Amino acid sequence: MILVTRFVFILRCPVLEQYCCVSVQGWIASVRGGSFSSQGKHITSSCSLVAFNTDQAGGMVGLTSVNAASDGKWTVTQISCHTDLVTDMDFSPFDDYLLATCSADETVSHDKPVIVCVCVWSPLVLFHPAASELLAVASVRGLQVWDVTRDTALTGKHTPVCARFSLVFSYFTLNSGLLTVSGNGESVIDCFEVNSSEPFLSQVSHCLTDLSTRGTALVPKLALDVSCCEVLRLLQLTDNFIVPISYQVPRKDFHADLYPDTVGHTPAMTAEDWWKGENKKVLTSQRSHSWGNHWIAHKKIGPSSKFRHIQGAVLHRDTHITNLRGLHLTTPGECDGFCANGQRVAVPLAIAGGQIAVFELSQPGKLPDTALPTIQNSVNVYPFRTGDDAKIRVWQIPKGGLTETLTEPECVLRGHTEKIYSIKFHPHASGLLASSSYDLTVRLWSLGTGEEVKRLSGHQDQIFGIAWSPDGKLLATVCKDGKVRLYDPRKSTLPIQEGPGPEGHRGARVVWVCDGKYLLVSGFDSRSERQLYLFSAESLASGSVASVPADVSPSTLIPFYDPDTSVLILTGKGDTRVYTYEILPEAPYFMECSSFHSSEPHKGLCFLPKTECDVRDVEVARAIRLGKSTIEPVAFRVPRVKKEFFQDDVFPETAVWWEASLTAAAWLSGSNGQHRKISLQPKDMMPVSEAPKEVPVRKYLPSSVYLEEKTDEQKKEELLSAMVAKLGNREDPLPQASCEGVDEDEWVSEELTTHTHTPRMIHDTL
């Protein structure tokens, strides 16, 4: 039996032996679906983005996110890809942000330079399901296979193909035994179960809509919402909307039979390997196990963090820097995107010469449309002090900010032979800097002398990240070769410890936590899913002591750790979600807290010194958020009832880490420094630990009152007294008795007035 209503219906599904619930979620508006006829896809989806054809001329493609923002809305943008109509598009199965498009202008475009192909009207594109960045391009002339990484065709000429197959393939989508079918311009969407024996196709749903279909796309399995037992999500492109249609199976708990292992996010081989004759399958992702464990863990009652309700909020617009133009949006994954301190923020610009804009946080407002003074390098700059020419440039920003463009750095550090992608100042020694490079070395520099003072080796591949220990004695690294290493630079140029790190090769970051007892690494697992790992600094060889999954996204989570509260805050470039955890030195190690969601993707977060926090509002951390055209302060607050008191349990004395405690020469000679600590307590606030204890107010009478024995006469008298009190004293005069009379002529005048107005009132009413 099938019960059908407007866009919400329940049907009998033989393959699942359960009732499926199909419902349309929030519609994505501001969409102008393409109306022209094409053999290719009009809409396609990755785990993060949705791309669709538009009616606008000039080869425009619309982009939006798969899921709505925290306010329940979608942001729709349009990009110009070609000079003519876009005829087909496809997302890479291994990179959510790699989109290939083709057009009648005989070009195929992706996120790298344009590939020029010998194609004619209505070409088609399709990524290989197992090989990384291998793209097939088809037209009526035939087929070519391209290696996107090299922008070259692997086939020397077109190979004839069947155009009919391409047409059918573009209209039918298959996913986990369920086949959805819809035609261009139709208002019907059918769903079939695919069987290995007769009947090979069994219809399980027949969806009738009031809107004609321009195209349909399936959201990848890894992006489905398992918490509501979603087994399939279809995106219907119409003239003005994208309608998400969710297929759900009502279950009370997790059922592994609904979520078999699905294809993962890691390619099985390279394009070159495939061309040489290799055939490999993509490893499956055991999403059923991770989803099930995640579900069960949230239902278990365990320890909770006092920061579990931490709230992130963007501060008032008066504190924003707006109208930021020409921002560099394609910085490498090794770069954090931008940097800031308590006074100013530095951001990269997409201008030749590696220019950097520096803005004073004390001067918010709208930036002028005219050019601004910048720091001008001769090459592209990534971590803001290094460039493509393997040199480190150190700049001195004048007090009050830039008033003119700087072209001459204070000093230039030379020594690396390959591009530098990570630098870290020593936490205690002034003028001591560590850098890592593609030459597989980590080097220490003295800014006072401008010379290299130490060179650390032992890495077998790209160094993803470096971090000094809180006491400044040790240096930790995480590498693409799958190792986490620990160095004591003053004693040895080789690692004193190493152990297994993240298995994924997309990128990683490392930070010290729990007073230097542990190393926290954010990276990717073998299925390219983002993970957090905790390692004991005393035994790296033993592997991680704990790990927690995050989500599926191509960007590396960049961590910030607050040693005062042991709160870890993470987000990635291009993300809209900011994760928060409290880190413990013992099990369960990770205690998840509330997340902060932004309305649009951000470039990243950079955290300010603790003295910038408003302790009166229980603000435990403040960050600078870099958006597409804005710089916005974000406050992370802990809800408290007695905010009139200083919350000394979350505001211990904090280290003044922005001040040096010794010189670089002293540290190199064997000395160690220690930061002084200051209290954040305002003079006019009392600590909550010393607040007077409130005496509890008794809300009920003592039990002796209720237990006291009373006679029947006493009870009767009390009842009568209560009734009299309610009714009042009947001997009291009535209120109207106290009214005074009027003269006789006044009665006559009043009577005439009444008769005069009454007929008029009746007439007006009629």
TrEMBL record:
InterPro entries xref list? Coronin, DUF1899, WD40/YVTN_repeat-like_dom_sf, WD40_repeat_dom_sf, WD40_rpt
Write out the GO MF terms: actin binding
Q: Where is it localised?
A: Cytoplasm
Q: Which PROSITE patterns match?
A: WD_REPEATS_2 (PS50082), WD_REPEATS_REGION (PS50294)
- The UniProt transmembrane annotation reads none
Q: Which GO terms describe its cellular component?
A: cytoplasm
GO BP term, example: actin cytoskeleton organization
Q: What is its main location?
A: cytoplasm
Q: Which residues form the signal peptide?
A: 1-18
The record's SMART domains line, in alphabetical order, gives: DUF1899, DUF1900, WD40
Keyword Signal recorded: yes
- Where are WD repeat segments found? 413-455, 456-488
Q: Which UniProt keywords apply?
A: Actin-binding, Cytoplasm, Repeat, Signal, WD repeat
Q: Pinpoint the DUF1899 domain residues.
A: 23-70, 300-365
**This protein's record includes keyword Signal:** yes
Q: What does this protein do?
A: F-actin regulator involved in anterograde Golgi to endosome transport: upon ubiquitination via 'Lys-33'-linked ubiquitin chains by the BCR(KLHL20) E3 ubiquitin ligase complex, interacts with EPS15 and localizes to the trans-Golgi network, where it promotes actin polymerization, thereby facilitating post-Golgi trafficking. May play a role in the maintenance of the Golgi apparatus morphology.
The entry sums up its family as follows:
Belongs to the WD repeat coronin family.
**In its UniProt entry, what is this protein called?**
Coronin
Taxonomic source organism: Cyprinus carpio (Common carp)
Q: Write the lineage as a comma-separated list.
A: Eukaryota, Metazoa, Chordata, Craniata, Vertebrata
